[in-house]
Amino acid sequence: MAQVEQAAVIPYRIRKERLEVALVTTSRGGRWIVPKGTIDDGERAREAAIREAEEEAGLRGVVARKPLGRYFHINSNGRRRVEVYVMRVTSVLEYWLEDRFRRRRWMRISDAEACLPADLRPFIQELERTVDWNS
């Protein structure tokens, strides 16, 4: 099957001198995940990450120019290469496009790691190593 490109974003904030990430539930309300979706025609991966953060999590912020990394996600639709970006959240919306289908929750790094699929855990660990605590 053809490889479809996707973009994911790890939204974070520093609150009370503690790093937190925002996770959302899958659209079917099950597992906790990071916002992720297909890159539209004519769209760059970073632009898709920005769009997904707002559509799926109701979050806006500053997204890194370069991806933190990439991984391959395999599901019933085939194998997808996912570019992962980080976003320092500057605005949290009360209502957003998918708020009827998804829940959003801020979590400590250790709690987020425990809920996320194994292929995303290294990115959470990398975020913790690379975050700018002065921003």
Identify the CATH architecture.
Alpha-Beta Complex
Q: Would you state the CATH class? A: Alpha Beta
Give the CATH H-level superfamily.
Answer: Nucleoside Triphosphate Pyrophosphohydrolase
The shape is globular
Main β sheet profile: 8 strands, mixed
Order of helices and strands: EEEEHEEEEHH
SS strand fraction: 35-45%
CATH topology: Nucleoside Triphosphate Pyrophosphohydrolase
Q: Provide the low-confidence segments as ranges.
A: none
Number of strands: 8
Report helical residue fraction: 10-25%
Report on the structure:
- The chain has 135 residues and is of the alpha+beta class.
- It has a single domain, classed as Nucleoside Triphosphate Pyrophosphohydrolase.
- It has 3 helices and 8 strands, in the order ββββαββββαα.
- It has helices at residues 45-57, 109-115, 121-130; strands at 4-15, 18-25, 32-33, 36-38, 59-63, 69-75, 78-92, 104-108.
- Strands 1, 2, 3, 4, 5, 6, 7 and 8 form an 8-stranded mixed beta sheet that branches.
- α2 (109-115) packs antiparallel against α3.
- The longest helix is centred in the middle third of the chain and has 13 residues, at 45-57.
- It is globular.
- The termini are far apart.
